[in-house]
Design brief:
With 349 residues, this protein is α/β, with parallel strands linked by helices. The protein has 2 domains: 192 residues, 3-Layer(aba) Sandwich (Isopropylmalate Dehydrogenase); 136 residues, 3-Layer(aba) Sandwich (Isopropylmalate Dehydrogenase), CATH 3.40.718.10. Helix content is 41%, strand content 23%. The protein is built from 11 helices and 12 strands. A 10-stranded mixed β-sheet has the order 2-1-3-12-11-4-5-10-8-9, with helices on both faces. The chain has a two-stranded antiparallel ribbon with strand order 6-7. The radius of gyration is 20 Å and the shape is globular. The two termini are 19 Å apart. Bound molecules: 1,4-dihydronicotinamide adenine dinucleotide (NAI) and magnesium ion. 1,4-dihydronicotinamide adenine dinucleotide binds next to helix 4.
Length: 349
């Protein structure tokens, strides 16, 4: 029997509730499919920062590295710790340190969920570059606070990183519909995005079975709203993928449904799975956070670990629960709680 070791970082606010809840269907699906999951919880959070001055210990990455995967709730408590501190002290070091260069977010309507669009059929997978590009962090500010102030933010696109994320997109497209949308803005950004297009063309020659369509970011943003059913796998740079996956979250019913995987495809380090939403201080401690995004992220984790049947089964169980929205949490108009929703998913298994 396979046993997986899982590092849990519940984090702050509702992160704590949704991670605890997601373990219930995880155990049920593991029992049913004949594997087990051993988990270790780490209290890395803003609360820890306030106590010790650090979001995680110096050897945090080392402590995580022996696990098969990381499940993270949400990090941030802006009333007491600036977001730049919490993000740069925990989430970003893990994504970068473990070279989780793929950020993968599925956007589709689960049964029973209508979303804000009239179109009800779409199944989009956004593949976002997760290590460089517009979020490289390169740049600076000089003459701060004066009339001569200058701020520079440099987007960095390396051949190695562009090629590996595009290749991941081609592979995903090959395993799904054979259609890939490559997101660009090469009409305006004549260096980085023309380079992105060139590498897309080079790889297209290696994947004759994949049909590539190039979309400018503004046009595809509109297309997410007007014709989402025409899209399948969408590969994008860090900034463009960030924006598109928030539109994806909106059309699939909101943050309570948006799951994400930070993947190290080479397997040299653990990958990390997390809901897209944050710590939601406005509803923290009330037991009403929607756990679906986190449970869906657990399904992505099982897929990554090679438990395909269990991953599909968990998603199917989620769908049987969402089919009756009255049983869901208040953000979906239901009267359920975080724990009752998780328990129903476990029961549906
Ligand atoms: P948020 O996602 O925490 O909340 C935005 C709104 O959506 C709130 O009204 C909240 O109640 C609602 N919401 C979010 N998740 C929900 C769920 N599962 N069920 C029901 N309602 C839900 O974003 P916000 O308020 O901008 O950020 C709060 C904190 O979270 C900040 O410190 C921010 O930096 C952090 N954050 C952390 C992320 C992470 O750990 N990956 C991602 C986004 C924000
Ligand atoms: Mg975002």
């Amino acid at each position: 029997m396979s046993e997986y070791s899982l590092a849990l970082i519940p984090g702050d606010g509702i992160g704590v509730d949704v991670v605890a809840a997601a373990l219930v269907p995880l155990e049920a699906v593991a029992d049913k499919h004949g594997f087990s999951v051993r988990h270790t919880s780490f209290d890395w959070s803003c609360a820890r920062y306030l106590e010790t001055g650090a979001m995680m210990p110096d050897d945090g990455l080392e402590q995580l590295s022996s696990h098969d995967a990381v499940l993270l709730g949400a990090v941030g408590w802006p009333a007491q710790v600036p977001d730049s501190v919490s993000l740069h002290g925990l989430l970003l070091p893990i994504r970068k340190g473990f070279d989780q260069y793929v950020n993968m977010r599925p956007h589709l309507l689960l049964p029973g969920i209508t979303g804000p669009l009239r179109k009800s059929e779409f199944d989009i997978l956004v593949i976002r570059e997760n290590t460089e590009g517009e979020y490289s962090g390169a740049g600076g500010r000089v003459h701060q606070g004066t009339q001569n102030e200058v701020a520079v933010e440099t987007a960095i696109f390396t051949r190695a990183a562009v090629e590996r994320i595009l290749r991941y997109g081609f592979e995903q497209a090959r395993s799904r519909s054979g259609r890939l949308a490559s997101v660009t803005k090469s009409n305006a950004q004549k260096h980085t995005m023309v380079f992105w297009d060139d590498v897309t063309d080079e790889l297209a020659a290696e994947y004759p079975d994949v049909t590539v369509t190039r979309y400018h970011i503004d046009a595809i943003a509109a297309r997410f709203v007007t014709h989402p059913e025409t899209l399948d796998v969408v590969v994008a740079s860090n900034l463009f993928g960030d924006i598109l996956s928030d539109i994806g979250a909106a059309i699939q019913g909101g943050l309570g449904f948006a799951a994400s995987a930070n993947i190290n495809p080479d397997g040299g380090f653990p990958s990390m799975f997390e809901p897209v939403h944050g710590s939601a201080p406005d509803i923290a401690g009330q037991g009403i956070a929607n756990p679906i995004a986190t449970i869906w992220s657990v399904s992505q984790m099982l897929q990554h670990l090679g438990e395909q049947a269990a991953a599909a089964d968990l998603l199917r169980a989620l769908g049987t629960v969402t089919a009756t929205p009255a049983r869901l949490t208040p953000d979906c108009g239901g009267t359920g709680t975080t724990d009752t929703v998780a328990a129903q998913v476990a029961a549906a298994l």
